Sequence to fold (413 residues):
Amino acid sequence: MAELNRQNPYAALRIPEFRLYITARFCVTLAIQVQSVVVAWQVYELTKDPLSLGLIGLAEAIPSIGVSLYAGHIADIVQRKKIILFCVATLLACSSALLAFTFDPDAVFASYGVIPIYGVIFISGIARGFLSPAFFSFMPQLVPRELYSNAVTWNSTLWETATIAGLALGGILYIFGVKAAYTIDVALTLVGLILLAMIGNKPLPEITKEEGVAEKIKAGLRFVFHNKLILSAISLDLFAVLFGGAVALLPIFADEVLHVGSIGLGVLRASPSVGALLMAFYVTHNPIEKNAGKILLYCVAGFGVCMILFALSTNFWLSLFILMLSGGFDCVSVIIRSTLLQTQTPENMKGRVSAVNHIFVGSSNEIGMFESGVVAKLMGAVPSVIFGGCMTLAVVGVTAWVSKSIRTLQRLH
Fold:
């Protein structure tokens, strides 16, 4: 029976609470993406300062990464559903505050500039820092172990769909005004909160024996750094994102290399997510049953090759295809890594391990953008992306050489 379940691409979707979970997460992700687009447009219209856009990301990333380890500890000692509900309720309050600002914008922004918006984003960053490990560790409580891989794939599929749709929806809604856009943002978050509340309470796993918060956090860190399989998988992802920073430089490529303007830039930015979505559907119907480690290495290497080819391309359609391909490779990497984290981590440490993974991935995104910018300043945009792709290939080579656990990994469940 378990084998039949693993072979059924819709097995996880047959579980009502899992359907509630991924639908709720879809709504919340959609709301977050809509909000990110609207906030960026609103802040830029108010300031006309490109630096103000960078500060939005910083205002969210710093608190999110800063609370991650403690958030992971909390996710292992408090019922995960309670954490999720509190965090989504906080995001709802933040969305409502942004909506409230639109009723009398002159009074708000004339006195304080865009500081109130940054303040709201800072608070939402804290909430998202706690939400990430809670979401990660709650999902395996909704599906049997043999369906972890299928559940992760569906979760990734819905996340990619929400990301693509959210960015597009945010741009469309802004046409109807900031107030209308934030109203939809609030509505989507509220729907997500209601759906999550409909999921039954799940028992808390047995708490590990370490005394004190610091010791429990250290135990989570020790688990990650002593588990060669998990450490290799998340390190591969970290360095691929760190060095494969073509997305951060897409405005330069769209303007100076491909000459496609802002519309072409939007299409280029969406293309990796489109590729990831298509790959997620493929993996759903053709799950990875063997040679998982080698597939992971090949896909990260494929991502690096895509970065090099993208840098060398001067044709818009070819560049578009290469970015879609890179998204597909990245999707497989994410599915394998997420499934490994679910299957290799004890239930009572999932929050802390997820938090470490969040720091790896979250910090690599931010630092990767910075690295790309610095190298592009020194070498130029095209050499910068080629350098990043070559470094990604080098990291894959070193990992394949030193990590026997990755090379020999067969099954994910």
